[in-house]
Structures are given as C-alpha cells and as structure tokens.
Amino acid sequence: MSGTADNHRFVVDNVQRLEDDRPSTIVIHHGIIESITEAASGKVAHLAVSGMCDLYSRLREPGLTRKGTIASESLAAFGAGFTQVLCAPDTNPAIDNVATVELIRQRAQLAQGAQVFPIAALTTGLEGAQLSELATLQAAGCPAAGQADRPLDNTTVLFSAMEYAASFDLPLFMTARHAQLGVDGCAHEGAMATKLGLPGIPVAAETIALAILLEICRETGCRLHISRVSSARALQMIDTAKQAALPVTCDVGIHHLFFTDEHLAGYDSSFNSAVPFRGTADRDALRRGVSTGVIDAICTDHSPHDKDASLAPFPSTEPGLAAYQWFIPLALQLPELLDLSFNRVFDKLTHAPRRIIGKAHPTGLDVGDVADFFLLATDESAGTIEQDTQPAMTNHPLNIHSPEAIGLAPLKGRVKAVYSDFRQYHP
Amino acid sequence: MTLPDPQFNALGELHHFIDLDALDKAMLTRILDTAEGFAGVNDRTVKSVPLLRGKTVANLFFENSTRTRTAFELAAKRLSADILNVDLVTSSTAKGETLLDTLRVLEALQCDMFIVRHGDSGAAHFIARHVSPAINVINGGDGQHSHPTQGMLDMFTIRRHKGSFENLCVVIIGDIQHSRVARSDISALIKLGTGEVRVVGPRTLIPAEVESLGVTVYSTLDNALIGADVIMGLRLQKERMRSATVPSSSEFYRTYGLTPARLAKAKPDALVMHPGPTNRGVEIAGSVADGAQSVILEQVTYGIAVRMAVMSIIMGNATSLRRAGT
Amino acid sequence: MSKPATARYEKTTVMHWLELMCQALTPLVQNDTPVALIGIRRGGIDVGRILLEHLVNAGLPVENVLGELNIAFYRDDFSSIGLHPVVGPSQVPFDIEGKHIILIDDVLGTGRTVRAAMNEIFDYGRPARITLAVLVQRAGHELPIRADVIGHSLDVDANQYIDLDAASMQVTVGEKS
Questions:
Q1: Overall fold of domain A4-48+366-398+410-425
Q2: pTM of the entire predicted model
C-alpha cells in the first residue's frame, strides 16, 4: 500500500529511501513533507527516490509538434520519475528570445508534468553568428545555454560566446562535435560503418572540438558542461582538464552505456543517434567514467519522433531514441553493469544534475522539504507498450527487439507514483 | 544481426539479392555455375531463353547509370521477360514523395521484380524490408555499400581464367572508401576462399578498420603488386578532388596508376580488371586497359550471364514459395 | 510388353537394347543429309556416347562429337518449382542449320523433356529433321511425342521410376517413395 489521500494529506507507507536501511512512512501535507517515521510493518513495498533531473531532452515544441509537445513529453518524463527536465534549444523558433521561454514554461505548468527549464540558444537561431541575449534569457529562467547538435564553426564567435557567458556565470552545455569534420557522417567511423558503407563520424570530430572548448574554458573561466560524451579519448581529455581544476563537467546519454556501433548491423535505424554509438572500447570507457566520477551525470538525450522519421534508408532516417518509456528498466541495470551502488547510480540522475545547474536544492525527501520524489518497484517486470499508457512517440529499439536480442538482461522496474508539484501522480 | 535478414524467404531460400555478406560459399558457387549455363546462350544465334516469359522486371534507378541499367535490361530480355525503365532521378522523389510512397505506387503496377539503384547505403535493405512479398528485389548498387551483381561477375571472370580462388593473390587499387564494388568484391573473394586480398591506395581513400573485412592494407602500389594474380582497379571520381581527399588525377596516376612498368611487377599472367567506366591516365594506362592481360571487356559480357543467373534463381525461388503455400 | 513391379535389367540386356537401336539408326544415317547426335542431360549423354561410338566405328558419316543439352532454361515447370539445379551448360559444338539431328534420351515418359529439348535445338538453328531415339519408352505420355527408335518398351505405373545407372549400364525399375 503506497499512499492514501485525505484532502491535502498523503500517507506513503512502507517505502525505503536509498540512504536508509529500513522502510519508512512518509506523510506529506500541503505538498511539504511533514514527517518521516519508521514503518510499522518493517516491509518494503517500494523504494523512494528523489525526483530525477534530466539534463538533455527534446520536447519538440514549439515548431516540431508532429513529433511531440511540451505536454506529452513533460508528462512522459514525469511518469519516468523525472521531476525536472532541461529542454534543448533547437526548437522552432529556437530558444533565443524570452517569449519562447515563457511559452515553454507556461505550457509545462499547464501540463502538470515535469518542471521544464529551457536551455537557451547560445546564438540567435542557433546560426552561430550573433550572440543571443544570454543575460536576459538567464533572468527569464534558463539555467544554461548551448548550441544543441549544431556546432559553431567560427572559433572567434565561440570564444566570444564563452567569454560573454562567463561574465554572468552562465554555464554552457556544449556537445563536442566539429562543424566540418565528419559532418556528413551518420555512424561511428569504424568497422561497422566500413562494412555497411555508411559515412562515418570519427572520434576526432569529438576530440578536436573538445580541445577547442577546453582551451577556451581555460582562457575564459567559462563554466563548461560537455553534453553527451561518446568516446574514450574525450573522457581522457575531460579527466585531464578536471585535474587541472578547470570548471568542466560532463554527462553521458544513458543509451551510450548500453549500445555500440555493432547494434547498427543490418541497418537498424532504431540505433541511429546524433551522438553516435561508438565501439565497444568506447562504451566500456564511458561505463568506467561513470563509476570513477569523471562523468558527473547521466541524461536521457530523449528524442521523440513520428513514424515517418524511421521509414527511409538508414542515412536518411532522423536520429534519436525516445527515452522515457524504457528509462527506469535500463537505469536499474546500471548498478550491476557499472559495479556501483544503487545510491551512487541514482545520484548521477538526481543530485549531480541539480548541482550542475546550480539548483542543488533540498533532496525532496527530507522533513520540511517540498515533496519531490517517486516510488520505484524494482522487481516488477517492465511494461510492454500495450500495458503502459501509450507514450507519445515510440522510436526505441526495445519497441522492436526483445532485451535479449540486443544484449540486455530481462527488464524490470516501474515507477508507481510521483510526488511533486504538490500532488500525487500515478503514471 | 538482430533484425532478420530480409534476403531470405520463409523456406530459407534467396528471395532478394541485396549483398553478398549473407550468402555462403555454396550459394555463391551455385550462382557462378548457373551463370555458366547462361554464358553459352549468349553465344548462340538466338540469344534468349523462355525462362521468364510473361514476367515483368522494373529498373528503379534513383541514381543515373546507363551501363548497369542497360546490362540488367539486356539480361531480362534474354530471359524473355518484359522490362520497364522507371526514371526516378528527376521524377517523384525530386518532388518530395517519400521512397516508401514511390514504392507503393510502383507495386500497384504489379511487376514481379525490382532492380534498384539508390544513393543511400542500406537503401536496398530498406526496400527489401518494406516491399510487397510477391516482389523480388535485386540491388543494382546502394550508396557505398554493395553492388552484388558486379561482385559476382568479377568472381565469374576470375574463375573462368584462374579456375579456383584458393591460392590467388588479389589486389584492389584505389578508392576503397567510396566503392560499393570493392566491398562486394572483398566479401565474395573472402567467402570463396581467396588466398590473399590486398587493398592499396592513399590513406584518405582506405576506410577505417578495413582489416576487419579480411584484407591486408598496403600503402605502396609497387609492393602490393608483387605476386599478384588479379589486379582490380576502381574508378576515381572527380568528387574526391573537390573534397580534398586526393589533390589531382595526375598525382593519383603517378602514385597509384596501373602503368605497364607496375604491371610487370605482378605475375606475368595476372588479370587486369576494372568495373568501368575506366579513366585512362588516372587509374590505369590506356595501353594496360587495352593490353593482353586486360579482361575488362569480358567482365561486361559476363555481366549479362551473371545477371541472368541471379534473376532466374530468385524468380524461381519465389515460385517455389508459392507452391509451398507460404 | 511386361509390367514388372520392381525389376533390374543387367548390362547384357541393356547392351542388347542399344544394339537394337544402332541397327535401327544405321539406315537413317545413310543418306546425304549431314547427321549429328545430341544427348539430353543427364541420362541421354551416356546412351548418346555409346550410340555415337557404334556409328563412328561403323564408318558412318556423323558429326564425331556428341552435342549435350541442358534443358533447365526450357522446362515448363519453372512457375511451379523454380529453377532446377544446373547440371552444366549446354554444349553444341557444331552447326544445327540443315542437319539431321538424332536426339537421344534414356527414358521417354511424359514427353515434356523432349518438348523442351526441341525448343532449345530450334534456338540454335533450323534442323533439316529430328529423329528421337530413346533407350526405354514407358507408358504415360502427356504430349503427342513418340520415339522413332526405341531400345525397349516398358509398361509401368506412374508411381514407378525407371533409372539407368551409367557406371554399371543397368536399368532398374522401382517404386517411388
């Protein structure tokens, strides 16, 4: 029995917080956690985990609403346990003006799903020529700025943008991808791309761009967050930068901890990703990076698509996986895969992301906090697409393949309830 | 591969001819043996057989190619099939119609077989996965991935001259990176048990981790040719100069052109092959292309018999599928 | 005519049938139209070789090479059972035009094989005439085709097979499984 409601009071019974070793009863009143006491029964029905914060997600609205809306995607995020989501700036129009920021925040509020923080477009229209009004956008609620998947090719503009952002202590979320090198590529440049005849994205496209970003970071002191790392070499460079005390952080998309370029066999476009799935050695390095802490956080890189996006030959399909539907079952495989405690894995999804955007607020699971947590059933087998509420878009390999077929253990784990925004939500 | 291979039907027989990776040595040999049967037909006065009478074959070329299209057309006609040439370079796809919609329209014409050439690697796989089960698809070349009939006719040519592949040293020169012909040749050569397959060219034209395909990489042509039994040239497209992978065709000729002097380093009975069209003075000296060791024109002739063999085998498997009630 | 359920005909018997065929063929060859022998793969090749040897040794004016037909591309059952495994390409190393062709097979049954062989011959050229010579003619014809020269006739049921083993020159009749 997980919760009973009585006007504005929720009693959440038999749940265990990750830092505890016994179950508790949590009482929420008017959205605030009134008390946490030891559960009488001593039985654990579910785990209670702080609401997760997604550092990179595409909500598609405004502009690409056939692929998703703020309402549908923020609710999908919420149902997966994310109470906060940073949305990518490559909407249409791009998030380079206050009106768009306002529209996004209002739509998110109406949807009553995850709280949405827009990432500002670093340059107007993401064109890479003129700076956006970064200070104004920051004041309007953007916790960071970035260029989405459209790297700057003018180093002068990049330097200037990073220097300017540093004036306002605005962190930049930058994906390390060179503007010209491998620009036509659609797969990791390696044995699989060679066999399939697919134009490749070499590791150098990431590392050369990363070198430029790190050097400018050193010169300007701009807070740099590398969004969605993909290669072993890039991790080495970030590790060196951190050891030199540069203000650098980074995250990895969850799927990059599971999949490699070998999954592309047979032109499987469900593995087409803008940040490519690289070789096995790279994936293993990313896993070690999470374990050792070189990688600070894990994001979803959520990319919902309409059906047509995948109905073409591989190079013409649109890249990206819709991440929320299968996120929790995949995340629950990480403690074993990474040889990391449950607590430390979920820290990469909850507190670490919040630290990066400067919102290291109360955990949401302590007495006196505004309630911000979700209940997790770890042993329930993960739902199929028919069982769950239909997510808006279903472009994900697990909607085509069984877990075993793509090298995963059987999937388990479900979000049973979310307590946030002064209410109780059942996905 | 987690996705089922679309090339095989429910009985495990070849239904589409997309790439050579999925075919075993026995199947490749069967194609070559069947092609032997058709080679004789092309020497007769009446150069056709009634095997595919009443069937319709459609050439769906999304990329220009007069040579390949003509070869398939001739092969179909020599099997007594009707042929339909659909020019898709300028038509519906240019108007924004998706590939899938174009396919549905063409299926409504009730053809039996599609020969497809497309600029995207994986296009033939995609079409094979989505086409109606009554239609067989032959890949006439998809992006940089595969040109399986060219691979087979190259194997046929080698087998005609050399008998077996076991102790052969085959050298492939030039733009491996962008060549679907090279990938198909490599796949077939390895599968047929070729002694050694070498690739040689400037590093900018050698694909990443190409050794994983089973080949040895050489950087100097002179070294690569020592002991060669078969030399295969590849086209160098002008695009390579524009994209800064190769400075000029004259420098390419100086460093990797097959000149008489270089040819002399190979075995005296080495075969000179090229999928065509050849750029004289770029990939190959004119005198070598026309010389005694060149079998370039034979490749063209054998291409008809090989395509007839592939079309017959696949069309035949479609009928046995119907008989099995599947 | 006999109607055996299973039977084996030894080499001496089979060679006797071939001798009968040669005797029947000899007068047909002694005229001024040039003659060539063509065997249908596979069974007709072995019979054809023996007949050719007899005729050549008898000093008769025939083409001294046996033509060989692989009728895989002319069969009428492509639509139901697909492409038969290819048993080597046809080889007709002489001109068909204006010749008297002796077409040879081991067993004549439905007549479809001969129909296919004749269609193929006509794609090589226009023969002056065709004489059909078979080692065994069995009951069960489905087309109006009859052999001109027969080694032996066998009245067998549709569910029985007749098989010539080239190595031993034995003919076996048995039940199809």
A1: Urease, subunit C; domain 1 (2.30.40)
A2: 0.91
